[in-house]
Amino acid sequence: MRDGVESMAFWQGAAADNARNYFHGFDRALTNQVGPLRSIADQMEQLALAMYELSKAVGDALSAISDMAIIALVEIAAAEALAVTGLGAFASLSSAGAAALQVTRIINTWGSVLDVWTRTWTTVQALMSGIVGTLGGAEFVELPALPQSPYSYQEAG
After folding, report:
1. Domain assignments of the chain as residue spans, ordered by start
2. What's the burial of 130, exposed, middle or buried (CB within 10 Å: 0-12/13-18/19+)?
3. CA max distance for the chain
C-alpha cells in the first residue's frame, strides 16, 4: 500500500495530501494487526498438528486393539475346542491364559489411548486459551474513517 501511495507523488494539492494522510493511517492500522494475526495463525497450525497427531495415534491404537481382539478370539475358540476333547485340558488352560493375556493387553492399550487423548485435549485447550489471549491483547485499531467534507475543486466551476 505504501508503494501505491508513494507512486502518486505527481499528484499535488490538498486532496492529494489528505489522500496520502488517510492511506498512511490506513496502512499503520493494518500493519498493527500483522503480529497478532501471525501469532494466531501459528497457534492454529499447532492446534491442527496436535489434532492430526491425535487422530494418527488413536487410529494406530484401534488397529492394534482390533488385532489383539482377533488373536484373543482365536485363542478362546482354540481353548473351547481343546476342552471339548477332554484330552487337551492342559492345552485348553494354556489357550485360555493366552486369551486372558490378550484381553489384558487390550485394556492396557485402551488406557494408553485415553492417556494420549487427555494429553492432546489439554494441549488443545492451552492453545485455544493462547488464541483467545492473543485476540484479547490484539490492538484492533479502528480503521480511519473517510473524510466527510465535500470535495470542492475551484477550477471545475
Report:
1. 42-138
2. middle
3. 117
At 114, list the grid cell: 485415553
In the DSSP assignment, the letter for residue 10 is: T
pLDDT in tens, 138-153: 666 677 777 666 665 5
The set of cell numbers assigned to 51 is 489434532
pLDDT tens-digit readout, 76-131: 888 887 777 766 777 778 888 888 898 999 999 999 889 988 988 888 888 888 88
Q: What is the 3-state secondary structure (H, E, C) of 44-105?
A: HHHHHHHHHHHHHHHHHHHHHHHHHHHHHHHHHHHHHHHHHHCCCHHHHHHHHHHHHHHHHH
Compute the half-sphere exposure of residue 124: CA atoms within 13 Å on the CB side of its CA.
Answer: 13
Let me know if 71 is exposed, middle or buried by CB neighbors in 10 A (0-12, 13-18, 19+). Answer: middle
Q: How confident is the model at residue 157 (pLDDT cuts 50, 70, 90)?
A: very low
Cell of 125: 485447550
- The letter for the amino acid at 53 is E
Cα-flanking dihedrals φ and ψ of residue 18, to 5°? -65, -40
